[in-house]
Give the backbone structure.
Amino acid sequence: MTASTTVAAPAFVEVPPPAQPGAPAAVAVPRLRRLARAAPPYLFLAPGLALLVVWVYRPLVETAELSFYSWNLLPTSPAEPVGFDNYVRLFVLPDFAASIGRTLVLILGLLPFTLVAPVVVGLLARRVRGRAATVYQALVFAPMLVAPVAGAAVWQWMLDPRGGLVNQVLGTTTNWLQEPGPAQVAIIVITGWHVLGFATLVVAAGLTGIDGEYSAAASLDGATRWQTTRWITVPLLSPTLSFLLLMTLLLAAQWSFPLVNTLTDGGPSNATTNVYYLLWDYAFGSFDAGLGAAAGMIFFLGFGVVALALVRLTDRLSFHDS
C-alpha cells in the first residue's frame, strides 16, 4: 500500500505597502505655501478692515439700536425702549422736512463750485507749464488746507455788516450772517471756497488720464478747440464728474457743518439748519439721543438709495477711454 500525499498550492495574499511617513507632510507643505502666498493681500487689508469695523460698522449698529430708545445722554439715566416712536416723531416735526429742503438748496448751490468751476479751471490750467503749474495748483488747493474754524473766523470778519471787506467791495450794508437769505448764500459760498481746490485737483487728475491722441485726431479733422472740448474732453471726463457729483450729494451737509456751527449756529430762524446739523442738534442740543439716532438712520438710508441710483445711472451714461 502506497500513501499519496497532496500538497496544496500556496495562497498569495496581497499585502499593502507600508505607509510612508513623509507623504502627509509633503502634501501639507504645498498647502501652507499656497496659503502663505495668498495671505499678503488680506494682511494688508486687515488694518483698514479693523478700523472700518471699529469706527464705522460698530457705531452704525449701535446707532440703529439707539434709535429705538429714549435717552438723554446722562450716564445715570437708563435708556428706555420706545419702539418706532422716534421715527414717528421725526415725520411729524416740521423742522425735519424743512432741513431736507435746505440741504437740497445747499447741494444745488455747491454744484458750481464742485463741477462747473473745477472744469473751467482745470481746462485753463492745462496751458500752464513747468513750475508755474505746480504753484498754480498749490494756490488753488490752499483753501482746502485751511481749518474750517480758522477760515470761519476770517470770513466772519470779512462779512461784518459795519466795516467788513465784502460790504465795502459790494457797496452794501447787508448783515450776511443774521438774515435768512444772505446767511444761506454765505454758507454756500464759504463751503464752495473750501472744496473748490479739492474738486479742481480731481478734475485735473481726470484730464491727465485722457489720451491726447483724441484731441490730436480731432484737430487733424478740422475740429476747433471748443468742439474738441465739447464733444471729446467733457464726455471722457464724465466718470470724474460723476464722482464729484456723488461726493457733493453725500458730503455737502458734512462739509458745511463746521461753518454752520461756528458762524450761524443753525440760524437765523433755522435758515442754515441742514440735515447734518439737525441730527446733531437733536442729539447734543436737545439731549435726545434716540431722536438724533433715528434721524441719522433715515438720512443714512436715504443717501444710500440716492448713491446707489446715481452709481447705476453713471455706469449707463458715462463714457470711458477704452
